[in-house]
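Feature request, filed as a ticket because there's no other form

It would be nice if the structure record came with a short human-readable summary line next to the tokens. Right now we just get the raw output. Example of a typical job, pasted below so the devs can see what we mean:
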Amino acid sequence: MKKSSKILLAVVVVIAALAVTYRAVNKAPSADLSAGEQLLQILEDGGCVECHSPEPKMPFYANWPVAKSLIGKHIEKGYAVFDITPLEEALENGTKPGEVDLAKVGHSLSDCSMPLPQYSLVHWGSSITGAKKNIVNAAVRTLRAEYYPNPLAAPEFADEPVRPLPDTYPHDSLKAVLGEMLYHDTRLSADGTISCATCHGIETAGVDNKRYSEGIGGQLGGVNAPTVFNSAFNFVQFWDGRAATLAEQAGGPPLNPVEMGCESFDEIVARLSEDRAFVKKFRSVYPEGLSQATITDAIAEYEKTLITPDSPFDLYLKGDKSAMTENQIEGYSLFKEYGCATCHAGENMGGLSYELMGQRDNYFEDRELVLKSGLTDGDNGRWAQTGIERDRYRFKTPGLRNVTLTWPYYHDGSVATLEDAVRMMAKYQSGRKISDSDCRKIVDFLGALTGQYEGEPLF
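Raw output as currently delivered:
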């Protein structure tokens, strides 16, 4: 046999051996496993935890001269964008996985953006084959149906990462009536000039359309006031998540020296107690009388009524194909393609996770160059509550409902237009330069998120 023929035969044998090995290490999970178990095996085989966890498992070559810097950056960015350990623990224990976690995994594995090609080149078992992709999609669909049922949507939209808003949120109507009165009552502030509605106007989509709200004495807050509408769907309240419930959130501003400036709720109770008619009405619902607990509970019950269903998008998801324009429908597809629907998932299209501001590019560095605006305490985000360095610049994702009405945008209120907000999100969160056409279509889609309050469209 000629030498060239021997070399060719050897090459063929090696390729065949590699192909057999590749298929062996990329074997799809058994069909006998549950959906959660199948997804967990793919995540584990994919080595996701090696980059997306607080304690990454470094490969043997991690300290090699060329690899060290590259691997370090991948691990740093991977963990910054997504900590996968809570999802893996939920799948392992058969408990409820995070809705955003499912959306992130479903998006990144189905479009093969993860794992990184250079990782799969070395770790063959991590590759997402066609069979694995199908299993991932089916598993995410099954887990969504089990833990986040979507009965309001038409069958074809039942597996969307976003769900229609319900018509109402469970609440106590008698308490809500008192809460509405308190929400608009300036006696909750030290100088009688500020109410909850001052910064979260019901007639202005639950915001005040100012970069920073004004408190007593004209003092300015340190972050942009988020909308109160649909806030009941948020997993925590405030940008930094310092309030676990609506009632806890309602107790914050009255005691904030910049916002409403009261020393304690005792002085609020004393002022309200002078109003005998109000006290009588209050005691008919809360026999225990006025206190911080009952006042904030009543306000929270009122805020649970601030739901804005029946947006064109909600109607579209429910099956009315004429509710959105062709551009808006295309914009929704782009919204998902760019990965927006991973963090902005669920009924409120956000409010379900903390996310790093600047996952793909340095937002704060650029802001300082453009706006000459240095870092403030408000920029620390979740770190202000935990002291954990990973939480610095990480914020509760805002809901996108009625977003065309809730300008200016971002936690710092630095972005005036929705077009700029979309362009910047593409750059800083998705790492992509968005085209003018795509931007316009996504903005058109976001316009379809304006809902109705008490049967009337928000304007």
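Something like this underneath would help us a lot:
The chain has three domains: 29-149, 173-303, 312-457.
The first helix runs from residue 3 to 25.
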